[in-house]
Amino acid sequence: MDESGYFAYSEDAKLLTPSIKNIRSPAILLNHLSRPTTLIINWEKIDTVLLDMDGTLLDLNFDNHFWQEFVPLTYAKQRGHSLTEAKTLLAPQFKKMEGQLEWYCLDYWSEALQLDIVGLKMEIAGLIAVLPHVVDFLEAIHQSSRTVLLVTNAHRNSLGLKMDKTCLNRFFDALISSHDYGYAKEHPAFWPLLQQQHPFDKQRTLLIDDSLAVLTAARQFGLEQLISISKPDSKRPKRVIEDFSAIEDFRELMKGL
Ligand SMILES: [Mg+2]
C-alpha cells in the first residue's frame, strides 16, 4: 500500500472551508488579513525540511486509483469475481493493516493477494504525476543551504519506481523509507530512529506530510513545524484540515525562501 491509502483519505476528505486555527509556532503564521487565508513561513528559523512523497509531492490519484480500482479489477479477473465482489473481499484485508508497516509493503500484498504488485504498478506507471508547483519549490529549497530529506512510508520498490518516473531524487540529500527502520511514520518509534541516523534540531525542522496520523506522531515526538496538504489527490475535493496548518499547493511556501 502507499503513503495515504484506501481508508485514510476517505476519512479525511471533507469540502474545504477556510480555517484560521492552529497558530502553533513562531515559524509558521497564518495571515488572516488577506483573503484567502495564506500561510507565512519564517524560513530563517528552518534548516531541515522533511518531505513526504505520495500525496505531498506526488499526486495521490495514482495510489488511490491503483488500490481502489486497478488491484480490485485484477483480483476480480484472476479469481472470477465481479469487481464489486472483489472490492468487498479486499476492503477488510486493507482495513486490517491500515497504519501498519505491512500496509505499505509491496511484498506483503504480493503474497497476501497472490498478485505481482510491482508489475501491476509498472503497468499504470503513466499515472504517476508530480503535484503542481512542487518542482519550483524543490528547486528553490535545493539551492538554499537547508538539508532536504524525502521521508516516506513507501516500499523501496515503489520509491524507486516513482523516482525513476519523476526524477525528483536529485533534489534530496537522502531518500528515507520507513521500511529501513521497521516502523511506519505513524509509529512513535520511527522518529527517534530517523533523528539518530539523520540528526536534526526539532525546533528548526519543518515536516510537510498529507497524513494527519503521521503529523500527529511527529508532533508527539516534538516536531513543531508541521504542515499538511489539503489537496493530495488532484481528482478529489480539498479537505478541511483542522489540527494542522495546511497548503493547497507549494506556491504558498515560496515566499521568503
Ligand atoms: Mg503521504
CATH architecture: 3-Layer(aba) Sandwich
Whole-number mean pLDDT: 87
Query: Strands of the largest sheet, in order across it?
Result: 5-4-3-6-7-8
- Kindly report the name of the CATH homologous superfamily: HAD superfamily/HAD-like
Task: Return the structural class.
Answer: alpha/beta
Please state roughly what percent of the residues sit in beta strands, choosing from under 5%, 5-15%, 15-25%, 25-35%, 35-45% or over 45%: 5-15%
Bound molecules: magnesium ion
Largest sheet: 6 strands, parallel
Poorly predicted runs of 5 or more residues? 3-24, 32-36
CATH level-1 class: Alpha Beta
Helix content: 25-40%
Beginning-to-end CA distance, first to last residue? 34 Å
Number of helices: 9
For this structure, the quaternary state is single chain
Radius of gyration: 18 Å
| Total number of strands | 8
Number of domains: 1
In the CATH hierarchy, the third-tier topology is known as Rossmann fold
Structure overview:
By secondary structure, the protein is of the alpha/beta class. The chain has a single domain, classed as HAD superfamily/HAD-like (Rossmann fold, 3-Layer(aba) Sandwich). Helix content is 37%, strand content 13%. Strands 5-4-3-6-7-8 form a 6-stranded parallel β-sheet, with helices on one face. It has a two-stranded antiparallel ribbon with strand order 1-2. Strand 6, helix 9 and strand 7 form a beta-alpha-beta unit. Helix 2 crosses helix 3. The longest helix is centred in the N-terminal third of the chain and has 19 residues. The two termini are 34 Å apart. The N terminus is likely disordered. The chain binds magnesium ion (MG). The site of magnesium ion has 9 residues, from loops.
